[in-house]
Amino acid sequence: MRRTALLVSAALLTSLLPLAVARAADDPPPVAVDRFEGEVPFASPPENGIFTWGSDTDDPPTLRLSPRDDAPEGDQVLTGSYDISGYGGFTHDFAFAEPAHDWSAHQGIRFWWEGQNNGKKVAFELKDGGANGEASELWTTSFTDDFSGWKQIEIPFTDFAYRTDYQPVGGIDHVLGLTEMWGYGVTLPVGAPGRFAMDGVELYGKADQSLRAAVTTDSAVYPVTQGRTATVEVTVATTGSAPIDEPVTVAYETAGGTASDADYMPLKGEFTFPAGTASGTTRTLQVVTRKDRTASETAETIPLKLTVTGAKAPAETPQVVIDAHGLPYLNSKLPVKKRVADLLSRMSLAEKTGQMTQAERGAVGTGADIAADDLGSLLSGGGSTPTPNTAEAWAKMIDSFQLRAQATRFQIPIVYGVDAVHGHNNLVGATVMPHNIGIGATRNPGLAQRTGAVTAAEVRATGIPWDFAPCLCVTRDERWGRSYESFGEDPALVESMETVVQGLQGARDGRDLKDDDRVLATAKHFVGDGGTAYGSSTTGTYTIDQGVTTATRAQLEAIHLAPYKSAVDRGVGTVMPSYSSLDVVGDGLGPVRMHARADMINGVLKKKLGFDGFVISDWNGIDQIPGDYASDVRTSVNAGVDMVMAPYAYKDFHAALVQEVRAGRVSEKRIDDAVSRILTQKFRLGLFEKPYADASGASKIGSAGHRAVARQAAAESQVLLKNLGSVLPLRKSQRVYVAGSNADDIGNQSGGWTVTWQGASGDITPGTTILEAMRGNSARLTYSKDASEPLTGYDVGVVVVGETPYAEGVGDVGNGHDLELSAADRAAVDKVCAAMKCAVLIVSGRPQLIGDRLGEIDALVASWLPGTEGDGVADVLYGKRAFTGRLPVTWPKSEAQLPINVGDAAYDPQFPYGWGLTTLTKVPEGGAATLVALGAAARAAERAGADDRGRALVGQARLIVQRKGITAAFAKPFADADHLLLTGHYGEAVRKLTEAYRAA
């Protein structure tokens, strides 16, 4: 990129400043944007001002205006410090109430920056068009802080690229018009504390046509079957869409590449767009290929070199690609194993290691590196979406990346992955399911499978064949910020919900993966991520996530490994290791990062369990292994990691792995094994035959049928913990008072991993809030979020409280979070429940501590994170469906009890694992005598293998027992009974329930 700059010392600053503002005679004078002399306040939108932002509370930088003797302009400069783990920076937005600024007369923008010589990149962003600074289009570039002292950074507007990883309003016209500018932003480096100083932001230079006019082509890659003709469209366009003032000449020539003149008819010539040509005018070039006598060939490239006069040339040379043909791996009739072996035998080391490399979509821009580095995979991190964030845009984006892969020798398609952990949750308008903890509460494996099938259909319809789900963690401590990603605390419950794998993938042998409504599933996070000890994390401010799980070999196998055995048996296609460390008691190794544990990945997962899919690392997961980067690479790959998620360091990983193989520290046999596993799944997915999106199912995204499945899941996930006086179900005729922070917030009820990584409060995606659903069932309803409206004259109150969204360790208790209701929620509960009969719904990713208020609450519901279908919650509140959900985790009395889980020797919770009252169901009569009879019948059903009858008999016993009060003596056998039920021990389950009945 073009940069002009002056390095200035304090002593020479005064004498050199005139040079900094020197300009050509016909240049317009510089226009100040920020002088940092106090003329622009620290203020947030919609006011004119400078404000900070970040991914969490620790990430926004600190800013201040500081007097400096060496200030390049005036007396003050903008200074700041930062320590960013996610993302953070600052922005200057112009006032929303005033017109946008016109910068089109200028060549670019410049500013003074005090370098720290830290080698870090600093991103600089412009806000173009749209309604205001927060609803504009973002254009970005960066500079490297590789200098010391003050330096004036000059950035021509032509250096800015449309931001591909995030657009606040989904993009507008993808043209940097410059006539409606709303300000700028600076994104600061992450990973280490730093400081900065900045001064004198201004517009400089004179715009000319070569800076505002550009020649583009309709694609960068043009695949064509040999003997066919490729058509290339060449377009001239201007910022602001004005006609060109001067002629633009384009000379073209086919030259270079891997194809020879025998493969195509050489093309050479020139044409001109005359002055006055409208922006968007297109000319067409055709490259004719020839059929040759070779029966089989790899793909061959024909670069079409364009030399442009009077405008900016295309960013890269377009390539016509003659498709590979006649090679055995391209024959879909051959067995997958033979296709893999043939392709692998032809690949170079660089091509193989490229297949083992996964990059983030935001890092590869338009995707040129896919071919340059032979990349095997791309992903979208949480919130990394195309613009606009629509199904059509997703498909178009992924097709553009697949097109890039066609420019490689073997045209191996990429496999694109996304975290669709409760529906296609990155896509606005998708069907958002309850999070896994709610699915676990349903105790309905068939429904879990249906939610997986809906997710798969919506994900595949946007061109994505791979889902980083399901999470098979067994959560053992509710202080963990990922608790809601687990189906529950009992490995037997997690195993029972693994039907979701079939919902995602279809048949266990992988034969359905090629279908347009199936995706490759990922079992994560192997192994023990749900068992990390509180206080053991060393990741930033996390307290438990990514920490250490300490277990004996027997405990490890019984609790954390069991779900992975089931997943392998179900044919899960990929497995992702955990960030956490595993400390197996007695093995002498101490805590070892899972990405480095060859004994677990190679030894247990691949050899003992027979996993034949491939292992994908977590986001930068290998970076947490002790040692330098080369060591991280060889350790993780030798441990059995087949593909490494190196989102922004993909080039470093690729180069390092090649070097490790050449040095003999990673064997070629290990590389061949990894690549064989990856290619096998690509063939099973049908990507070689159909690499592009099949959008035929896009009309079903967010459809009534899909939402009906989510609605049922939301309804069955509701756990009725208390129902004094049968307050629930509600009646339509009742006068209902609704309050609480989570009654009318689609973002809160959907939780983290919704549209963005952390999720957000507010109207973030289409759906029905709990309040909206209740209004559809009640003729007489009043809503007051803070319960400030008068409280008299109502039959019943419903207070919907709980958590706001978070994800991963950001949500750890002790990292800005706890298990207590907020002060506002507590106040709402106190007000409403003191004034009338009340039902309290807790919308959260984990149990909340409500023991001190339980006495004043008549009915209590664990609503978990129900997703976008609030109608499902209303269905059970108003008796359209019975409450049937059961606790997937133990509900503690206090944080001091944590961790507390079914099977513990000391067990005295608020509500035991498996607890869940039922409505609309008659409870059997007879008490202890009936329990004896049910036990005998359950034992008989167990012997006969009559699982449905056995489960029904245990369910009848539960109804009898749950009428008793909960004590420590009651809770332990009651919870044990639910575990026994899940493992098929129906007679013993009834015996435990009988024990609980007698102990109450």
Automatic annotation (TrEMBL):
Annotated Glycoside hydrolase family 3 N-terminal domain residues: 349-680
Signal peptide interval: 1-24
Keyword Electron transport: no
Pfam families associated with the record: CBM_11, Glyco_hydro_3, Glyco_hydro_3_C
Residues covered by region (Disordered): 47-74
EC category: hydrolase
EC number: 3.2.1.21
Keyword Transferase annotated: no
CBM11 domain mapped to chain residues: 32-206
Reactions performed catalytically: Hydrolysis of terminal, non-reducing beta-D-glucosyl residues with release of beta-D-glucose
Gene3D superfamilies: 2.60.40.2030, Galactose-binding lectin, Glycoside hydrolase family 3 C-terminal domain, Glycoside hydrolase, family 3, N-terminal domain
Key words, A-Z: Glycosidase, Hydrolase, Signal
Domain Glycoside hydrolase family 3 C-terminal: 719-918
GO molecular function: hydrolase activity
Source organism, top-level taxon: Bacteria
Family of this protein: Belongs to the glycosyl hydrolase 3 family.
Name of the featured protein: beta-glucosidase
Source organism: Streptomyces doebereineriae
